[in-house]
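Re: your question from the hallway

Yes, I did run it. Sequences:
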Amino acid sequence: MSNIARFTVSIEEDLLERFDRYCQEESLATRSEAVRQLIHERLTNRAWETGHDEVAGTLTLVYDHHRPQLGQGLTKLQHDNTDLIIATTHIHLTHDTCLEVIILRGTARRLQQVAAQLKGMKGIIRGELVVARAGG
Ligand code: NI
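Structure:
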């Protein structure tokens, strides 16, 4: 774990009151916890927008496994990007559908590209990418 640094923030009273209400509504234990989460969120969003920085995330796919070529297509695309894909979990969800969770790590730009390619394949019922964090 990193060393903890402390810093003082000057802020308008009414803004601080709103922030405290936000912390309470979001069940955040302390102001420090809330500020930490907001900084992480903002840096992750920024990395996502610029595309250059490294991010990690999960891609959840639900698909129809009767669809011809889809399973092979998904496997091929993952084999073409082994540096980006850390792990994959596959669950046979119902008789007709599969659920696959793919964990990725790499530059935001490549993550966006590969996730879009995977989500865009014919037979994908639902695809959702969640970006977990930025940085190393
Ligand atoms: Ni399956």
